[in-house]
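User: Fold this; tokens only.

Assistant: Input:
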Amino acid sequence: MNNQDLLAVAEEFGSPVYVYDAEKIISQYNRLTSAFNVEKLRIHYAVKALSNISILKLLNSLGCGLDTVSVQEVKLGLEAGVDPSRIIYTPNGVSLEEIEQVAALGAQINIDNLSILEQFGTRHPDTPVCIRINPHVMAGGNSKISVGHIDSKFGISIHQMPHLLRIVENTGMNINGIHMHTGSDILDIGVFLHASEILFDAARNFKDLEFLDFGSGFKVPYKEGDIETDIEDLGAQLTSKFEAFCKEYGRELTLAFEPGKYLVSEAGKFLARVNVIKQTTSTVFAGIDTGFNHLIRPMFYGSHHHISNISNPEGKERFYSVVGYICETDTFASNRRISEITEGDILDFSNAGAYSYSMSSNFNSRYRPAEVLWYKGEAHLIRKRETFEDLIKHQVPVDLDINVESAQSS
């Protein structure tokens, strides 16, 4: 997609609008699958990153499975045509009833706490279950996305292995996989490889495994010169370790990963129109027709999204603070060098494919934007922009017989 393509999308579908490049998703998937030279490889796309059914259908057509965290995500995958055998369900803190709902749908169950493991194993000993362990490894680019450390709510501690094994023995349940996920935006592959050794050690306690799931957390570049996970180096080193383990274990296991951001982040663009240029005594603000209701990552994670003015890409650069229209501090970028901006220009936010639309809301009663998939030179609308009717369709007006005078006196 070039600037003229993006401007045409903004003109046709309005702003703000999310645009996803299908070819970039395909190339990221191919790069990942090429990096790991193992006999059995399974990629499960993390639906939470971007859950539009058209994206799920695209990935399904490539042979990609799904990583889900709710029964609703499982149902979205089934709606997109994904076979339930290629869906893994890794919830946290959900009820036993929800897990049983998903098991009935045929997805692979992945349990991360001892209480539910014992209850599920007692009631469904024949249903294959994967166990999510907590390797107690601190990894990830932000405290909110580091999930494998000792204080994390995720996973069963490796130090609880004796208790875990007693539950498995007492229930006679079928453990077919071991899983871990240390965090997102991992730069040091040495940390990932260290955690993998812990996973191998845990796997040695189980004799009938079919797969080992290493989660994901691969980092993508957010700006020029930014570093990313060296997926080829990780692939070469982990492939060697995995093959050695399989030889020791006595059978070929499946190597599984659950990338989300890695597959869709760079494919996404978020386009917004400039409503106003506001000069103060110290700052030039570019106020745009969106806010953290549509793209919360900068305010929530402190994430960096490269911003370019595609209406004036060759203009002289000036310093701007790009802010939204929400009634709270709503800053996308502070004192950022951007080509000179005038009111009505379209700004392009890069790396908007992951955890962007999926974390949007109706805060301030604003409509969520449209989503567009760019494929083979054409724009395809894959989600309509919301309308006022969408805001109120699930609200239930109640007529209360209130006496105004008595209410005021009380």
